[in-house]
Amino acid sequence: MAGLQEPRRVTELSNELTRDIDTADPLGIVRRLCGSDAQLFAGWGGHPGVNDPVILDRLWKLSLKTAALLKENQDQKKNNRIVFSGCGTSGRIAWLCSWTYNRILQKFGHTPCFHYLIAGGDRSLIISNELPEDDPPKGAEDLKKVAEGADHVMFVGITCGLSAPYVAGQIDHSMHQPNMTSVLMGFNPVSLSRNAPIEKWDKTCRQVFLELETLSCTSDSAFIINPIVGPEPITGSSRMKGGSTTAVLLGTVFLTSLQTLLGQPILPSMTLPAREPEETEVVFDHSLSPSLSPMVSLLDCYSQTYQTVYRHSGGVASLLKLAASCICQPSGRLIYLGADTLGALGLVDASEMVPTYGVGLEEFRGFVAGGWEGCGNTEGDLSGYGKTFRVSLSQFESDVLPSLTDQDCVLCLHGSSQRTGPPHLHTIVNKVLASPAKCGLLVMAENGMSCNHLLDKRYETAVLIRLPYYHAFGKECVFAGFALKLVLNAISTGANILKGRVYGNEMINLRLSNDKLFERAIAIIEKWSGANEEDAKFALLRAIYKQDDAANFQYRPISSHITEASSQNMVVPLALLLAGGRSSVSYSSREKAAPVCQRSQGCHINGDRPNPWPLGHYIPIYLTTTRPNTLSL
């Protein structure tokens, strides 16, 4: 009943700054994303943001706790571990951050102690594995395995919407263990965390997270880090602002802890804290505490990196335009090539397209020099799982390079500190430049570094972003990586908008890969068809099972629906047609329909704003012709 529905979580709301993003040209898309990303630092709606004194106090206390655990490893030879965990994007950020922090420890002669977990294991770094995300006991089991033999474990569970059952199971386990510190990171008030029943479990996310919140008031082994940074620019797409905020918060806490341990500044200009506050001291105003200055300075570095990226909005828009000119083609592809952390970020961005926009596995790809070797992932080389997991440059050369056409866009990702990059990358790039593919260059440049060696007139578009900050501890490209994430998110999101996979700021062809996305699909159908919740769900089931009479499927567990739907494309658009009054639809021919959202019809890449026509009460329609009055599946 609509009157009894709870308020929607902030992370599931529509961002008012981007509600017309589907009508924008490439530069307009980037400018709207700039406004949304500003909320990461400015906060949203009167809630505490990342710069709020209450959040800063929690971050500082967590940093002190972390530094103490790291110090015990150094001085007392203890086996303390720090474990980051999450589903989808959160798990991928957990992987990248643990890899980065371990390399910093190794550089200074310390034993790595950072670990990560991702629901579904390492295969989920490339392809979402739906059912483990909704399995709390599996989450607890995975945590027990990684904690085995440790003296103390700091567990950091990341769930942007406070909605992941996998993480809830881990928090439920960790907060009842005497040798564990429990940290929950997300971007909703705890009171709005997900409260839906979970299959084969007797608790909800909200029950677990409220218990942790209560515990955090009295214990130094429980933390909740939940600044409110506003709705995503594409509704519910936590890979964007949620993922970026996660990277900022993890960096702020754990780089500061490493600075304390190592006695080395994160940046040459950053001083060490003058003192540590007493255990009983509570700091609510960072301007009064010299101890907080390195952490505040670090947040300022991230903020300045964000500002620098969007001062290059024109360049980012030019790369977006280049990518969209290929993605909007029938067989177009966008391919990222890079090395080290920057290459891995291309891998991550490409991996997020299937669940978010329902694209094919080959439409967005990422390749990194050296492949899985040296990527710091737990399971090592994943190439044996299939073509999609073959991510080295050698595998690009054998699998993809021979098939490149003028409908493909290859984007080369460089850091200026890499000089010419790995020799193989230079060789591969030259071969790509000689191919029919459209080739772009994106350079994250370190101040004072010449980039002339990277430039080549054969690139159709080349963009250089010179950053005020680049490395952390003189080695890891933390700030360059944050900048690159913002740019890649803009490029891939913009390309999908121009392809017609977004209406307003809603992703209308999401892949139903977990419980949360199943719920989101029902909400989208309700919103755009005018149907009530019950009818919207029934239309969704009809679309999943391809039967007009879906009554037999109504009482199956949601996991059954997800298993059936996770490999299907265009389920939500089909359900929209059904919920909107289309009583007769040819299910067998639905795969032939080309995704075109009416308001972005014609793929306005060159800056021509389309003229939206009145669309009636149901909006996103999959057309087989260009005539607005033709609905055909």
Automatic annotation (TrEMBL):
Signal peptide annotation: none
One GO term describing the cellular component: cytosol
Keyword Flavoprotein: no
Gene3D superfamilies the UniProt entry points to: 1.10.8.1080, 3.40.50.12620, Glucose-6-phosphate isomerase like protein, domain 1 (3.40.50.10490)
All copies of domain SIS, residue ranges: 66-277, 323-501
Assigned keywords, A-Z: Carbohydrate metabolism
This protein's name: Glucokinase regulatory protein
One GO term (biological process): carbohydrate derivative metabolic process
Organism, scientific name: Geodia barretti
Record carries keyword Cell cycle: no
GO MF term set: carbohydrate binding; enzyme binding; enzyme inhibitor activity; fructose-6-phosphate binding
InterPro entries according to UniProt: GKRP_SIS_2 (IPR054017), MURQ/GCKR (IPR040190), SIS_dom (IPR001347), SIS_dom_sf (IPR046348)
